Amino acid sequence: MRLCYVIIAGLIYMNAASAQSAGAAGKEWHNYGNDAGGKRFSPVKQINDANVKQLKPAWVFHTGELQTYEGTKVIEKAAFEATPLMIDGTLYFSTATCRVFAIDAGTGKEKWMYNPGVNLKADYSEITSRGVSAWTSGAKADKKETRIFTATIDGRLIALNAANGKPIYAFGNEGTVNLREGFGSEWSVTSPPAIIGNTIVVGSSMGDNQKIDYPKGTVRAYDVLSGALKWSWDPVPKDSTDKAWQTWKNNSATITGAANAWSVIAADAERDMVFIPTSSPSPDYYGGERQGQNLYGNSIVALKASTGKMLWYYQVVHHDLWDYDIAAQPVLLDIEKGNKKIPAVAVGTKMGHIFILNRETGKPLFPVEERPVPASDIAGEEAWKTQPFPVLPVPVGLQHITEADAWGITPEDKAEAAKRIAQYRNEGNFTPPSFKGTIITPGNVGGIHWGGMTYDEKNRLLITNINRLAAVIRLIPREQLGELEKADSTLLRTETGRQRGTPYIMKRTYLFNATNTGMIMQTRPPWGTILAIDLRTGEKKWEVPLGYMMDPSKYPGAENWGSLNFGGAITTAGNLTFVAATFDNHLRAFNTQTGRLLWQAELPASAQATPMTYEWKGKQYIVIAAGGHGKLGTKQGDSVVAFALE
Question: Which of 14, 257, 539, 588 could disulfide-link to 214, CB 3.0 to 4.6 Å?
Answer without folding.
Answer: 257
